Amino acid sequence: MMPVQDACACLRFSTDGLPEAARAKAVRELYERTNLPGKLEPLEPLPNCPVRADITKRALPGLGVMSGTFCGLRQATRRRGSVSSGEDDLLLAVNLRGHSTAQQRDRELILQDGDAVLGTRGSTGFTITLLQHSSVGSTTRRSGSSRTARRC
Description:
Elements: H1 4-7, E1 9-14, H2 20-33, E2 43-45, E3 52-60, E4 63-77, E5 90-104, E6 107-111, E7 116-120, E8 126-140, E9 150-151
Antiparallel strand pairs: 1-3, 2-4, 3-4, 4-8, 5-6, 5-7, 5-8, 7-9
């Protein structure tokens, strides 16, 4: 049996203690500094928007769980084939509070309080625009699921 401390890796990141001018750079660098299994997808600040991120991500064997509050960010999920074979590719995001937009190919979903999106990386990946929202999400290995984003 694997000891508990080896079974779960955790990442905690917040811009709350940073000056406003340093937040965009810190968020951009987060992807490169993260080395958890099921790496955090890249975040990009939106132009002319205040930036805020408060993220907790836990990585278990075969499962990643993330919760957080986001403001003024865009998260681009890398397409299938652009990630290592060990990274997870079925993504579920539940919008707890606020609003966001999920896009894949020519489909766009506007997410409000309580809405969820389920998607795969597919050949194009997908993008979530996080204007001001709190969410919880998970990633796991895909097995025979559809390759498009859907509202749950």
